[in-house]
Structure formats: structure tokens, C-alpha cells
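Here is one such protein, fold included:

. . .
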Amino acid sequence: MRIGFVVGQFPQLSETFVIGQMAGLLKRGFEVDIVCNGISDCHLANGGQEPLATLLKRTRDWWGAAAPARPALRRLPPKLHDKVSTALDLTSVAKLNGCDAVVAHFGHNGARAARLKKWKRLSPPIVTIFHGNDVGVPMHEGDLGRYRDLFRYGTLNLTVNDFFRRALIGAGAPKEKVAVHHMGIDLRNIAYTWQGWRDASLQLVSVCRLTEKKGVEFALRALGRLAIEAPKLAWHYRIIGDGPLRKRLEQLAHALGIAERVSFLGGLAHEDVKQWLQRSHAFVLPSVTASNGDVEGIPVALMEAMAAGLTVVSTDHSGIPELVEDRKTGFLAPERDVETLANRLRFVAEHPERCELIAREARRKVEAEFDAERLDDAFAGIVSRFAKTRQAA
């Protein structure tokens, strides 16, 4: 069976879940074609390594030879831009029609494919996967109706959490066309290791892009409060990642008087990140709804930390409670609630034995519900069902 993927720029290393899902289908004997909104620099993306080497051979820009005109077309008036871009989209229809099913990652790419279906130019069934920004931002703007054509002409809409599933149904998607399909992690590459911190300094870590929705500001404010309320507690906080808020967050750490106990390590190679996780005790990700409505799905970083044996401290945000149950598989605080977050961090610092039990439950949770192998098997079953229906027709 041949599955066509419709994605944004490809490949993007920040979207390893997309590449992982494609690789999962290749492993199960599927052929994969890709139509994308721009092909990124393959050298930066390890394009010579598998599975990317195979995937890139089957990748086409939506607009083919006209792709270099993309920057100029963005300057056109909206209505004219839509007409021209739609005409150019048609140049990739033949590639997609050669597939048995189309999988679109992110709602806007599903909507793009659905328009072609509406005009009777695209034949295969469309399965769209919603991840976060594609639900949160239009929900914030009161504009989930932008997916009206997708709800009608798409075959199935998969959401990475139940929060998004309910949002799409509330916006008019037929219940029978919406289901939850989690993203997962490769547990074979993550060994569970517990490290206690009784009579030792608690090592905290965050791994994320430094943007508003990751909530690192509130981790710093909670630790600033903890430094005042429990000055004898020994801890150090390392922040791995870069982004537009880094300078402001560094300034905040100084203003809170905790700069000497906070290290901004910037972006690191994957192997270096793994080493820091192994040296750490607790993983902090106090995610929030951004001012533009952007939200998390269920962060892969939390899954990886839980699988590795770290105690996770996060927030009651979007789909995170579907992964982290407060005081059972980790710790949660309400969004932007500095006091509760500080209390959760203090509890972690003072109760390593209790946290060990929670960490074990966290690993079991990830194994049961977020194992990429099992999820890839389930996804292969989904696309096979729709592909067989088309082949039979």
C-alpha cells in the first residue's frame, strides 16, 4: 500500500513524531510519498541517514518547479494569493492520487487536501492529525469553523489528546469522524533509571524551546519563591533549549535572585540532552496557554522524562493530564499558579522516597499508552482499513 503524507516544510527536526510515523509505516511494508510546503536543507537535517534518505527520495514540494516563487506569492492580496496557490497545488494532485490514502499532519494541511477533495480533484481518503497550535489558535480566535470542508470531506480526524477531540466535535466535526491517537516514544532506546536525592542537591531540568507556552517563566518564579520560603533546600535548575524568550528569562532569574542556581545551556545535541537527563532528578515543564491561544498536545519531552525515571512537574494544561496524573504519575499545578507550583517542587525536594514510587508508576503509564511501537501498529491498521476500502472501490 502507498500512503501519501501532506506536511509543512520537510524535514523538520522539531517534528520528529512526523518522521517517526513515516518510518513506522516503512518498517511495516508500506510505501510512503511526501508532499510538503518546502524542502529544508538536507545536510542540516541529516538527510543522508535513514530513514530520511529513503523519505527524501519520495518527497515533492507542493508547487514543484514553481516553489521558488513562494516568497513573491505571499505578497499578493489574500484572494488572489488563494487562487494562485490553489492552482499550483493542483500540480501535486497526480502524486497524491497515486496513493491509497493521504495522511495530513496538522489541521491546515488537512484542510488544504480537503479543498482538492471538494473540487473532485483528489481521490484517496484523507486522515488528518491535529497536534496543538492547529486547534488552540483557531479555538482562541473563535474560528475552528475554518475546518468545515475538512470535517465534511475528510475521512478521519485524529487528535493527539481528548481535549482536542472534544473541541473539534464542539466545532461541528461528526463524532464518528474524530478519534484520539496519541503520539508516542521509542521505549527501546530509553532505559528506566532511578536516582534518589536524599542528602543531595535536587537537580531540576527543562528541555524545551523557550517560548511562551512552555511556561519556563513560572518555573523560575516558583523557584524564586522556594528560595525565600525554604532557603536551606539545595537545588539547581538547568534549562536546555533556546528561543525568543531566552534573554528575558535570564533577566528574570537575576531579578529573582536565583541566577547562580539556574543554568541556561542553550540548544544541545540529542546525546548531550540524554546525558543531562541521566544526571537529573526531576523534569519541569509548567506549560500554559499562550496569548495567541497556542497550546501543547501532550509533550513528548514529558513522556521521555517519565520513561527515563525522572519525577515530572507540569501543569493542568490541554492534554497533559491524560499523561500525568497529579501525585500518581507526576505532579501538576494549575496554569500560572506560582504558589502551587512552588509547593509541588518543595514536596519533590523533601520526599524522594515517595517520588520513587510515582516514577515507577509513570514508566508503567508510558509503557501502557505511549509506546511508539504499539501506536504505529494501531496507525498502520487505521490507514490499511481506509486504503483497502479505496482499492476495493
